[in-house]
Design brief:
562 residues, NADP, 13 helices, globular, 22 strands, Tumour Suppressor Smad4, transferase
Length: 562
């Protein structure tokens, strides 16, 4: 019989000669046996499961903490960047009289920055110059406040002359001063393109002018925070006009293959451009062979050999003419990995959102375009890089790949859902579980993205469309992100299958677990000529191509409000 609690405490508290009595030991053994009978010890596997669950919980907590820290750091860096940009902008607006753009263009033509080291050499003197400008502005503000208190008029003239002298000294010592960047342009020279001395390139200038306004002046959209009020400057016209400063000399004609009507029109257009406009003409090797098969008269037509000559086409060609549909425009854009000459797209395809010109009146259209000025639409492109999981750093990439419509990440032939982790400027966006994801330009908003439920967007709206393909979620709606962000789509390691990326419907690449696709806005848009203007052509394309909002008009003889 087990002793009572009082007996046990007495026996345990009275050790004699350093040993517990036998009654205490017996009661302890019985207590252990009863405890084992009531709650048996679990197996080793159960302990391992509990341990793994605990470690998984700890891992989740650590990941949340890391994500929170990264998000906080990114947010702090973004706020700091915005503060510095706004402060620099306010300083820049105070300094007038500098023709920054002419300096920048002439300097760029002479030195031609082509790598990161060149950009660093360009920015370092500007940074030192900015510090000098800050110190000068501080002294000027102190003297101005002192002048206001004393009412000394003579100090005003001294202050102005001192400011001009310091500005000249600052800009003269370092070439291009950083306080001239992003100044509100008020001269035509802000958009001049310096002609290439080594090639027969026609120069032109772009101007932003309001409807009915004949002046070439334009204004930037500037946000001001002066005196605690947030205001925006008057917005200029959204239409861009191109005016030739020298006569175009070289035209390239790109055609849709396997079309008899296109081949006939191409031969007729080549003859007209040569005889009437005295232009040098480039065509694809396939087209040149077809023309020479028809007649030896076309021996004057130029072509190219190899990728090296294609890379240099933008230095020789003044104008691009496409004969086909939107696919021909996409092909023309893919040939130019950098700057793109103005494109004149003629509609000879089945459906064209980017081809406003009709081929029947090609002589009239081309004559007007060669004389200028013409309205153009700047169609933005995406610049894509594929980073493999085995890459040692983020600079070991495949690319860049330029797309005019969209880049699509899908599941390919796999029957499993696509699992994609999406990030925007290092901020987690979502995990896509469905058939795939479309990252589209606004020009591609009427293509695959529209079929997947995305919005139709004006092509001159700078943005990136984020459209899921058949997501397994009722709340997954498409997004439109600003043009300055960088998107990263990664295949997680726990994905059941690979993913496939295609660029404007071609050049498919497999994305294995750990691989990532990085997309951002490319610095080289595709300028396409407009028949009327950018907005009118866009609305006509969705009316004619999609029959947008086409229905019978409601009868007027029905019931009416009293």
């Amino acid at each position: 019989m087990a002793p009572s609690k009082g007996d046990a405490s007495v026996s345990c508290s009275q050790p004699e000669n350093g040993f517990l009595n036998s009654l205490s030991l017996l009661s302890s053994e019985k207590a252990v046996q009863e405890l084992l009978q009531q709650s048996p010890v679990q197996s080793t596997d159960d302990h391992l499961i509990e341990f793994s669950d605990a470690m998984r919980t700890v891992a989740k907590a650590l990941r949340r903490a890391a994500e929170g820290k990264a998000s906080a750091q990114a947010e702090a860096a973004e706020w700091k960047r915005k503060y510095e940009l706004e402060r620099a902008r306010n300083l820049l607006l105070e300094h007038k009289g500098y023709n920054f753009y002419e300096k920048l263009e002439s300097w760029w033509t002479q030195s031609s920055l082509c790598n990161a080291m060149g950009m660093i050499r360009f920015m370092l003197p500007c940074l030192f110059c900015l510090e000098n400008c800050k110190e000068r502005d501080r002294k000027i503000s102190e003297e101005q406040s002192h002048r206001e208190n004393n009412g000394d008029d003579e100090r005003t003239e001294n202050l102005a002359s001192r400011s001009n002298e310091q500005s000249e000294q600052c800009c003269g010592s370092n070439g291009i001063c950083s306080h001239e960047v992003l100044r509100d342009g008020d001269r035509d020279s802000a958009s001049k393109v310096v002609p290439n001395k080594c090639a027969r390139k026609a120069s032109f200038k772009l101007s932003w002018c309001c409807k009915g306004d004949q002046s070439d002046q334009h204004k930037h959209d500037i946000v001001s925070f002066e005196r605690g009020n947030i205001t925006t400057a008057e917005r200029s016209s959204k239409q861009i006009s191109l005016k030739w400063e020298s006569q175009p000399q070289t035209v390239i004609i790109l055609t849709k293959p396997n079309s008899t009507s296109v081949r006939i029109l191409c031969a007729e257009m080549v003859r007209w451009l040569r005889e009437q406009k005295k232009l040098d003409i480039y065509v694809e090797p396939r087209v040149r062979a077809e023309l020479l098969t028809e007649s030896s008269y076309y021996n004057f037509v130029h072509t190219w050999k190899g990728e090296t000559e294609i890379m240099l086409l933008h230095t020789k060609v003044d104008l691009v003419v496409t004969l086909g549909g939107d696919g021909t425009v996409l092909w023309a854009a893919s040939m130019f990995k950098g700057p793109v000459p103005p494109v004149v797209p003629f509609s000879l395809g089945s459906l064209g959102f980017m081809t406003p010109f009709h081929s029947e009146r090609y002589q009239e259209y081309l004559d007007s375009i060669l004389k200028g000025p013409i309205s153009i639409t700047l169609r933005h492109r995406l610049q894509c890089h594929v980073i493999r999981e085995a890459a040692k750093n983020e600079y070991e990439t495949e690319g860049p790949i330029l797309v005019l419509n969209e880049v699509t990440i899908d599941r390919g032939i796999s029957s499993y859902l696509t699992n994609l982790e999406c990030y925007c400027d290092n901020s987690f966006v979502t995990c896509v579980q469905g058939d795939g994801l479309i990252l589209s330009t606004t020009s591609g908003s009427t293509a695959y993205s529209l079929a997947a439920g995305g919005s139709m967007v004006h092509p001159q709206v700078p943005g990136i469309l984020f459209t899921p393909i058949c997501p397994h979620s009722l709340s997954f709606r498409p997004l439109i992100l600003p043009e300055h962000v960088t998107l990263r789509v990664q295949v997680p390691f726990n994905s059941r299958s690979h993913a496939w990326a295609s660029f404007d419907g071609k050049d498919r690449k497999r994305l294995a677990a750990g691989d990532a696709l990085v997309c951002s806005m490319a610095p080289w848009p595709v300028p396409t000529a407009c028949q009327v203007d950018s907005t009118s052509d866009f609305l006509n394309s969705i009316h004619d191509g999609l029959h947008w909002n086409l229905r019978k008009t409601q009868s007027f003889d029905g019931p009416r409000d009293a």
